[in-house]
């Protein structure tokens, strides 16, 4: 009889300890997710857009309207329609780690649709601004689009 009581106590204690460990691990995981994403969470508005070709400035635009909203692992962004009437917007998920945002768009405007739906974006940031540089090559020219965002909230 004493062995049954000892066995029950052991099973109860083991189950209790395992439950505490699981809850603790889950809480730590959620804290890491919140602290990693909260650094970039918020509403961001484009303040400056620079287009460079082979290092030379081709254009500067401070009137372009574009917003990004990062919240709880989700991203949505929009911009005013282009001069040709095409629309540019997208929605999906994101992660933020080591000053790099990885966006995976699951819904987007027709002009955005392609085989590529994941974007890895290294950024430089402060508490109220961040800068992203998108580099691409066309023919023999290396282009860079530099976007500087200011935080609205």
Write the layout of secondary structure elements.
Blueprint: H1 2-38, E1 42-53, E2 56-61, E3 66-71, E4 74-79, E5 89-97, E6 100-108, E7 118-125, E8 129-138, E9 141-151
3D architecture notes:
- With 153 residues, the chain is of the alpha+beta class.
- The chain is built from one helix and nine strands; from the N terminus they run αβββββββββ.
- A hairpin with a 2-residue loop joins β3 (66-71) and β4.
Quickly describe the structure.
By secondary structure, this protein is α+β, with helices and mostly antiparallel strands.
Biggest sheet, in brief? 8 strands, antiparallel, barrel
The amount of helix comes to 10-25%
Distance between the termini: 65 Å
Let me know the average pLDDT.
Answer: 81
How much β-strand is present in the residues?
over 45%
Based on secondary structure, the structural category is alpha+beta
Unreliable residue runs: 9-22, 24-35
The DSSP helix count reads 1
Q: What is the general shape?
A: globular
SSE sequence, one letter per element: HEEEEEEEEE
Total E-strand runs: 9
- How are strands sequenced across the largest beta sheet? 1-3-4-5-6-7-8-9
Integer-rounded radius of gyration: 23 Å
């Amino acid at each position: 009889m004493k062995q049954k009581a000892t066995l029950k106590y052991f099973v109860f204690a083991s189950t209790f300890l395992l439950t505490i460990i699981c809850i603790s691990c889950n809480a730590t995981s959620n804290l890491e997710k919140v602290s990693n994403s909260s650094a970039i969470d918020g509403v961001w508005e484009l303040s400056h857009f620079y287009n460079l070709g082979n290092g030379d400035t081709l254009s500067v635009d401070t009137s372009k309207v574009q917003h990004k909203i990062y919240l709880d692992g989700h991203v949505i962004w929009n911009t005013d329609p282009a001069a040709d009437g095409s629309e540019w917007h997208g929605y999906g998920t994101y992660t933020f780690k080591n000053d790099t945002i990885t966006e995976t768009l699951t819904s987007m405007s027709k002009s955005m649709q392609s085989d590529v739906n994941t974007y890895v974006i290294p950024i430089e940031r402060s508490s109220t601004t961040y800068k992203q540089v998108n580099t691409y090559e066309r023919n023999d020219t290396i282009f860079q689009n530099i976007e500087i965002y200011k935080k609205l909230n």
